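Cross-posted from the bioinformatics board.
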Amino acid sequence: MVNTLVDTDIQHTELTAQSHVMKTQAILPYDKKNDRPLFMVLVILAFLATITLLATASGYRAAVGWQENLQGKLTVQIKPTISGADKITHNTADKAERAKIILAELDQVKTVTILPDEHSKALLEPWLGDASIPDDLPLPILLDVQLNSSQNLEVKQAAILLAEAGIRADIDDHSQWNKEIKRTTSAALLLSYLALGLIIIASVAASIFATRAGLTAQRRLMDVLHQVGAPPDYTARLLSTRFATSGFKAGALGAASALLASVLVGMMFSTSNGFSYFLPGLHLSLTDIYLVIAVPSFLALIIAITSWRTVIKTLYNEIYP
Amino acid sequence: MHINISQQIPNAETSAKSSTQSDANIHFERVGFRYDREGEILSDINFSLPPGSMTFIIGPSGAGKSTLLKLIYLNMRQSRGHITLFGRDTSQIDRKEIPALKRRMGIVLQDFRLIDHLSVFENVALPLRVAGRKRADYKDDVLGLLKWVGLGHRSHALPPTLSGGEKQRAAIARAVITKPDILIADEPTGNVDSDMGRRLIRLFTELNRLGTTTIIATHNTTLIPEDANILSIEHGQVTGTISGEHIG
Ligand SMILES: Nc1ncnc2c1ncn2[C@@H]1O[C@H](COP(=O)(O)OP(=O)(O)OP(=O)(O)O)[C@@H](O)[C@H]1O
Ligand SMILES: [Mg+2]
């Protein structure tokens, strides 16, 4: 067709060959300047969502961990009797041995361990500091009683048994502490679930809103594609792929910064054994990694669905007759 | 009172040589159109354009020329009457079929509708890309056509850097790159001087000689070639038709 038409009087002075390689341009390229505000909003949303997710997961794990540690466990403290200077320690150790035998015979008890002196000394440390504790100081002896799982030993019952054998002991089943932890962590968890829910709703709403706004700017492109005969699926795929990719990138950036931030903050404020209760700190689990991957994927999915639906709706309602 | 002029506008020469595009006809029968509930913008439009014909639609501003073209390129549906396109009653055309039909039509609109971030080359190649054609297959065609419309040296340029006439030619190149059966142009000489206007009309004439059914809306009657068909509308009605000199 082209060759048969060369006899027109359109000027051909510029017939320079354009045969050098041209790169195919994307029909819908990334427009850094115009996309940046939306991009930043998505990054921030992903950051907030990830932080909240990590905190919630970490808090949940901490709560479960504490409860598991304390449940099914008693601590028995054999007090030294204050009489006869020399035999005190020996007397206490003897009582501890007997208490161990008595307790070990109970059906509910799995193991009884007499804890070494260090544990008792550690209990005194807050009062005495780390100044060397004199060896002849009368120390209580601690027994660690592990119960068979799902069995409960009444504190009173054990106390009576020991008293009958002439052993004065304090028994702590940690129920008070346990209840406290449960209450506090439930409250914290409830709050973080609430925050998580709100952030998810906000992210979904914001990405839907952002996608629609972004598509309005592409209305002309949609018109032109329709004019040159692009099927609706083609246009919808083009736009939703582009928006979802952008959303994924923003999500990945937000989630990665959130992970980095929480690890850094966790390290700064962690306890001496490297554990910080509501942040993953150095204790990154597989769940944390999954969450960090899930955030951008989820964001991309929402955006893909929204943009697909918006494009199809615009085409059918406004562009098609 | 409505005056209905129903007349066939044949074009002996072109219809004879375009037997392969025998369904590229456009037929209006008592077509009426209204936006919303206001009065009819077009009423009782009757005409028939055979395959390979070249027709100018003329009339004062607001007469309904653009509206008439929109009905032809399936941008809107008529309120009443029948339109036959490619041998089919358009009211029977499912919207899923519209993209395929649009690919058989080249459309040039007054505002060009070029995509600003794509080069002239990419704009012109867009219909081919959308149709799934490989770049290696169409590259030479696009470059050749760009040379032919005098844009060979501007193939890398972005539309915002083009002059009005260059944009016009890029839009025309995009409309004809697929060798459409029907070419529709709304005011294609509106933004250029009369010299460029004449060149563009000649370009349309050449395309028409190759068998493309061509319809051009314009109020610039001085540019209309002597042998063209003319359909004049006023206040939404056909007020006259002039058949090309081939009919006599
Ligand atoms: N979207 C619309 N909604 C309502 N009325 C419209 C719309 N588009 C056009 N009109 C009206 O329809 C009438 C015909 O418009 P049209 O654009 O077809 O005229 P035209 O002949 O192309 O004029 P021009 O030569 O100025 O381009 C005008 O009165 C116009 O105001
Ligand atoms: Mg008009």
